[in-house]
């Protein structure tokens, strides 16, 4: 394999592994913030126990998120030194700010986790959630601006291979930034919420602790309310993305929709198999004119086709499958949360086993949607590393030993992933939530402090 | 404004901060493992855990800050160090990942495992060793610029006395600084048994510390004579460093003012580290990257400086809060539950 491929695979494995933990890292604080709020407000120690147990599990995922984040931060320079030399002139500011946001979050997370019982007034402890949520969300925002810049560079002029007239803010607030930030944050919140919903539903199906049922039902309800909200935001974000791609990155939209001829009334293609030789699309569901509508809110919007884009700038056509997966898995969670409420407000039992099985899938599938979405976004800008300015092949390192590095890191991720799952499973096995609640809060609610 | 000077001062300060907090952190992890082997863990582990639990993430950020900052202020370093350090930095990253994760895995697992304690204890000594390679390379002589790009002379690096002396300096620093800090922390916790144990560790590491730092100095003379000569101009900084060390050792030997003793240890490293840094200028990577020519464009340097000042306004109060809650809160340090605030 040549270095470009190895470099891409290595970056993809690091990021693919990191975003699992990064997504949880961005989304989960919202979950325990809401739960702790409900617990203090309603004086219900079940919610507090939930918040506390989730925060405990969260710490383990944060640890892996922190180390993999550190890895990707350095790997950018190790694998793509030429890019960082050029891009460093521009992306330094958001990277720097991301570190500040992360620093801020790390400090308050440390305080949060070790002060559950130190405050007389439980609201004081709850306030610590605010800097954590701000810090985690802002780090997602800043790092997304870096990625947006690589997709839609702005804020500089290129003269003889050097960047001049650099405007750091224009680079940060490049054309794609708002759409992407909204999409990233909404889906991270959504995924974290549905992961907790999955766990609740799974425990309702399988837990041997009968006394926990009420606890899990409470949790599931809160997660479904939040999930519905977040899923709607995600759909909105997806719609913005389509319009944005149409305006600014037509080659990505065309490749992900297998749209070859520039035309109005363009069809939306769902699923299907492409014969790359003949450009024939088989087994697909074609929805007439909808692509045009998605791109510009009117059926006669003209959508650029791949044939109007130079051959050596075509993104790989495989991204259509990632697009399908992202949309399908994302929609699945939305549908399931709607069904939950239909069941709840009709005579049907919302905790029917069949439905519980459906809820269990929402978390893993949302995470799969995140992964597919990132594969779509990143592969969709190939062959560019800095779209329009630098190709991936020009940025890769000349150092020896990239192959062995790839093997070492992949092994590391396998081991870390497996141990993480093991620790998380161990953490919540063998002891019912109710026992833990009694340990932490005693028979009567004492307001967030140990009796 | 001289952005190149601002940048390098900021970065050097963060690197200094990292060396202090990471040394405490890494050393504490190692001593925790060592005490398990010798059966002293019931004496010392609670103290170590109480300190490490709330701060381990913060330590890591100091490091991230440094490498994000250096690429930001001096993008050329990304190219040179990025290419040269592919293997050494990847090793360091893998070790960092193992240490960070297994620390958390072990603290949150129901029954801590000795093998996991081993993992984060021993990686704690190997990480400084592998990271110090970057400082060794910065002295020049291990990188060749060729037609196809730059290449690291890995073999030469592996067999260089200077390289190994820096590695040992890094390891001994970790043990010396962290035992110094733990002495202070145990004294605050009023835990006499633990205090005696870590005090002994500290005194054991004093002599190797003195010895290795002289050795590295002489190694520099062999390796980069120019830098060695410039270092002579700042002899007073190195003298102050030695004097601070003397005060620290004296105080701990006489069981007095452990807080002041630790401040003296910090001063000892501050003087030596800044002395080394100042005499290194104008080179960031000898002889390829020079501070004056490699600095990022003016407008980005300005934004970075503004972002940095705003960031500090946010960070410093938060850090103070963290320290007040966990480092300077008597009841917390002594391990008593409390209900203040």
Supply the key terms.
heterodimer, A: 451 residues, mainly alpha, two-stranded antiparallel ribbon, 6 strands, globular, disordered C terminus, B: 341 residues, 4 strands, 82% helix
Kindly state the number of beta strands of chain A: 6
Q: Strand sequence of the main sheet of chain A, in spatial order? A: 1-2
**Which structural class fits the helix and strand makeup of chain B?**
mainly alpha
What's the assembly state of these chains? heterodimer
Largest sheet of chain A: 2 strands, antiparallel
* Strand order across the largest sheet of chain B: 1-2
N-C termini distance of chain A: 63 Å
Stretches of chain A where pLDDT falls below 50 for ≥5 residues? Answer: 447-451
What integer value in Å does the Rg of chain B equal?
A: 21 Å
User: How many strands, what sense, and barrel or not for the largest sheet of chain B?
Assistant: 2 strands, antiparallel
Q: Note the beta-strand portion of chain B.
A: under 5%
The helix/strand order of chain A is: HHHHHEEHHHHEEHHHEEHHH
Radius of gyration of chain A, CA atoms, in whole angstroms: 23 Å
Order of helices and strands of chain B: HHHHHEEHHHHHHEEHHH
Q: What best-fitting shape of chain B do the alpha-carbon axes yield? A: globular
How many strands appear in the DSSP assignment of chain B? 4
For the residues shown, what is the average pLDDT of chain B? 81
Helix content of chain A: 55-70%
Kindly report how far apart the N and C termini of chain B lie. Answer: 45 Å
Topology:
The complex is a heterodimer of chains A (451) and B (341).
Chain A: H1 3-41, H2 45-79, H3 81-113, H4 122-127, H5 129-151, E1 157-159, E2 162-164, H6 168-172, H7 177-206, H8 213-248, H9 250-256, E3 268-275, E4 280-287, H10 290-296, H11 319-345, H12 353-379, E5 384-386, E6 390-391, H13 392-395, H14 402-428, H15 433-441
Antiparallel strand pairs in A: 1-2, 3-4, 5-6
Chain B: H1 3-38, H2 41-73, H3 75-84, H4 86-108, H5 114-138, E1 143-146, E2 149-152, H6 154-158, H7 161-188, H8 192-223, H9 225-233, H10 235-253, H11 258-280, E3 283-285, E4 289-290, H12 291-294, H13 298-326, H14 330-333
Antiparallel strand pairs in B: 1-2, 3-4
Helix pairs in contact in B: 1-2, 1-5, 1-7, 1-13, 2-3, 2-13, 4-5, 5-7, 7-8, 7-11, 8-9, 9-11, 10-11
